[in-house]
Specification:
alpha/beta, NmrA-type/Isoflavone_red_sf, Isoflavone reductase, NAD(P)-bd_dom_sf, five-stranded parallel sheet, Rossmann fold, NmrA-like
């Protein structure tokens, strides 16, 4: 058997982190997997499941001391960070520790839609982390995955899809004609497992997606599969911009900042992929990404049609609720 690639996953109990762990465990590549969790997460049921599947679980604090993190990362080949948005600042200390420990590839927590600076505050924060990683001369790979197809399930008059329609994401941004790259959340880990052992992706951005569609086509598909007229709740571009403008003002008020941040994140996402058209292979190429489909043409993910059919026949389960 080949020498295993030693991978440490940070943030394994979240939605992306759980998918990454599953993808690594199910991969034919020989991975030796460790996961870093906070003391408060040690007794979570999902952590026990990781242990049962042979994952080494270590307890650590991303806020230091740094030397404790260096010890944890010693001997690790690849670090994949899947931490939540409000903890992004902690990644810089993690990257510094990874550099000292000799980590060969650092994957910062991105896993979003691609876009240029100045459009989404969340993307800009993540880009600042990448800049800090680059200043360390730490080898890196950034992975973005488009918009999750699990977040675009249209409501039906009968309510058959109700438990799959996610709060905050039930609207169709713009007029529904903008093309977008979509990926089932559960395929993220499968894609990550391919990317992180490929020398072609070192010090590169990779856009990993399963298919491209418009939201109008998505709703049409649900209507066709269900035999019902799926509900369309459009959110005009000017309403999105209005929400962004108001949230930017509220962000400057301390007691309103957390709610304003949530509103900014959601509406700036909608503006980016639903109005501007940033979430496409063509735009991603302009932004400097490698195209996953060109790198791995034989790797297939779950299509929107397969997801919707599973929802309608009762074989699908909802993903975890949205959290920052």
């Amino acid at each position: 058997m080949s020498t295993p690639t030693k991978v440490l996953v940070v943030g394994p109990t979240g939605r992306t982190g759980g998918s990454v762990l599953d993808g690594l465990l199910d991969s034919s590549t020989n991975f030796e997997i460790t996961t870093l969790v906070r003391q408060a997460s040690v007794d979570k049921p999902e952590v026990k499941k990781f242990k049962d599947r042979g994952v080494t679980v270590v307890v650590g604090d991303l806020r230091g001391p740094k030397q404790d993190l260096v010890k944890i990362l010693s001997g690790i080949d690849v670090v994949v960070s899947c931490i939540v948005a409000f903890d992004l600042g902690a990644e810089i200390l993690l990257a510094e520790a990874a550099k000292e420990a000799g980590v060969k590839r650092f994957v910062p927590s991105s896993f979003q839609t691609p876009g240029p600076r100045g459009v989404m505050i969340l993307a800009d924060r993540k880009d600042e982390v990448l800049s800090a990683v680059q200043r360390l001369h730490l080898p890196w790979t950034l992975i973005d995955v488009g918009w999750w197809s699990n977040q675009i399930v249209p409501p039906l008059p009968s309510g058959r899809t109700k438990k799959f329609v996610l709060e905050h994401f039930s609207n169709i941004p713009g007029d529904g004609t903008v093309r977008n790259g979509f990926t089932d959340l559960r395929d993220v880990g499968k894609y990550v497992a391919k990317i992180i052992v490929d020398p072609r992706t070192l010090n590169k951005k990779v856009y990993a997606y399963t298919e491209v569609s418009t939201m109008n086509q998505v709703v049409d598909l649900m209507s066709e599969l269900s035999g019902e007229e799926a509900i369309r709740d459009y959110l005009p571009a000017e309403k999105i911009q209005q929400a962004i403008t108001e949230a930017q003002k509220d962000y400057e008020v301390e007691e309103k900042r957390q709610q304003a941040t949530l509103i900014l994140f959601i509406n700036q996402y909608w503006q980016s992929w639903g109005v501007r058209g940033d979430n496409t292979p063509e735009a991603a190429e302009i932004f400097g990404y490698l195209d996953f489909k060109k790198l791995y043409p034989d790797v297939k993910g779950k299509t929107i049609k397969e997801l919707f059919q599973g929802i309608l026949d009762g074989s699908e389960t909802p993903i975890k609720p949205f959290q920052l």
